[in-house]
Design brief:
459 residues; mainly alpha; three-stranded antiparallel beta sheet; 23 helices; 3 strands
Length: 459
């Protein structure tokens, strides 16, 4: 009971000496009522909850974790025989100044420092071996040289170390052999790419070379373009950020070149005859691949990719969602001018197309941002004219899709769009052309020109 009182005082909770005496007497009384010679754990808990916690169960959780379960770890003398893998981990912990503690603690790493980089390698290698001593978190800031880990050692990790001792006598050798074995067992490209990314983070050059060969073999025979598209973004990140971890980028570049070529060749066929659900999945993959290729900043890759996007915009039978997004990507890349984008939107919104296709095209073109409608009034006018010309039944059918698309825009963009459309209706009601500006008073504007000229220092 004295230790309970000390624990509560450390947490700024009231626990007086009189409460200790009262709790002890209550525990003894409970034991007497239950015909027990001495108070047991149940009686002590009930007495502590009644006296110290005033009946609340919340402080009892603290008492249970700190005193009953505790956070102390046992240890064995260093002279005790250990498997070589355990001995190597102990040497690495001492060299890198890492403590095995039961409490969860935060470790912030700056990968520009050698000791921090080696700590990161060790934690990544242990994770590959199935020993999650550290859990990586999200580092604050935009720098790629930062890592944040949450460390918590658990006694069962020792058992796992003994089990993984069959793969090698050191952490490096065991992780390399285990990754090579896992790579030989993997049969799909996304699994190999994920394993490759983890091996690169753990700095396992021998395993990376083996994985590169496996990835090349699988990519050569892979016919699923979706798997190729899923594999590209992680490798693009490695190429972009590999220097921080001192990764050999040349090993990854060859695989990336092959993936980009195969994606560009197979993408038009993979986008044919897609339903709404498949088109939505391909839409997400298309965006990820576009971001990855843009991230690489390779002129040859960009030229090939933009050519594929242009081909998709002209492809017959392409889902409207994908056709609209391809047009938007080419517009943002400067391959389409405003006139070309307006022409293609006009064709997509023509009466020859089904309203469902036109609505999907607009969703793909606008999804994520509506700023383009604010900067190019022709596109907004085209969209407004098409909507107002729809029959009632067609408008009712596509309204949910448009609501979903425009709900992704910020409130300020939606408000500005509404103000522009409202202004057009007011101009039309006044019998003026769209280009007229009845709200602009030139007389009042001329009156302030002299003052503005003085403020700007003009004569």
């Amino acid at each position: 009971m004295t230790r309970v009182a000390q624990l509560l005082r450390e947490q700024d909770l009231d626990a007086s000496s009189a409460s200790v005496i009262e709790a002890v007497r209550l525990a003894e009384s409970l034991a007497t009522l239950r015909d027990s010679p001495l108070p047991g754990l149940q009686e002590l808990n009930e007495a502590a909850q009644t006296v110290f916690c005033f009946g609340s169960a919340l402080p009892m959780r603290l008492i249970h974790e700190k005193l009953i379960v505790s956070e102390r770890l046992g240890n064995v003398p260093e002279v005790t025989p250990m498997v070589p893998l355990q001995q190597d981990l102990q040497r690495e912990r001492r060299r890198l100044r890492l403590k095995a503690e039961a409490t969860k603690c935060t470790l912030k790493l700056d990968l520009r420092k050698q000791i921090h980089l080696e700590r990161s390698y060790l934690l990544h290698r242990l994770n590959l071996l199935g020993i999650p001593w550290g859990e990586i978190g999200q580092a604050r800031g935009t720098g790629t040289f930062r890592e944040v880990w949450w460390l918590r050692w658990q006694p069962e990790f020792v058992v796992r170390l003994i089990e993984m001792g069959v793969w090698g006598n050191t952490i490096l050798d065991a992780a390399t052999a285990f990754v090579r074995h896992t790579a030989d067992q993997a049969s799909d490209l996304p699994t190999l790419i994920e394993l490759l990314n983890r091996a690169l983070l753990a700095n396992l050059p021998d395993a990376v070379s083996h994985l590169m060969q496996r990835v090349q073999n699988e990519a050569t025979v892979a016919s699923n373009v979706a798997h190729l598209m899923d594999a590209l973004p992680p490798l693009a990140n490695v190429l972009r950020y590999g220097n921080v971890r001192q990764t050999d980028r040349s090993m990854v570049g060859q695989v990336v070149d092959g993936l980009v070529a195969r994606i560009c060749i197979g993408l038009p066929g993979a986008c044919t005859s897609l339903n709404d659900e498949a088109a939505a999945e391909m839409f997400d993959r298309l965006l990820r691949v576009h971001s990855a290729i843009t991230l690489l900043q390779d002129e040859e890759h960009l030229t090939t990719w933009h050519g594929v996007l242009r081909h998709l915009t002209d492809q017959q039978g392409l889902h409207g969602l994908l056709a609209g997004r391809c047009c938007r990507l080419l517009l943002e890349a400067g391959k389409f001018g405003d006139d070309e984008a307006a022409r293609r939107m006009s064709l997509a919104l023509s009466l020859a197309n089904e309203p469902a296709y036109a609505a999907a095209w607009v969703e793909g073109f606008l999804k994520g941002s509506g700023l383009i409608l604010l900067h190019d009034r022709r596109l907004l006018q085209l969209l407004d004219s098409w909507l107002t010309s729809l029959p009632d039944d067609a408008f009712t059918a596509i309204l949910p899709l448009f609501r979903r698309t425009f709900s992704t825009f910020p409130a300020t963009e939606r408000r500005q769009m509404g103000e522009q459309v409202k202004r057009w209706f007011r101009v039309q009601d006044a019998g003026l052309g769209v280009e007229a500006k009845p709200d602009f008073d030139t007389t009042r504007a001329d009156a302030v020109l002299e003052v503005v000229a003085k403020l700007l220092g003009a004569s």
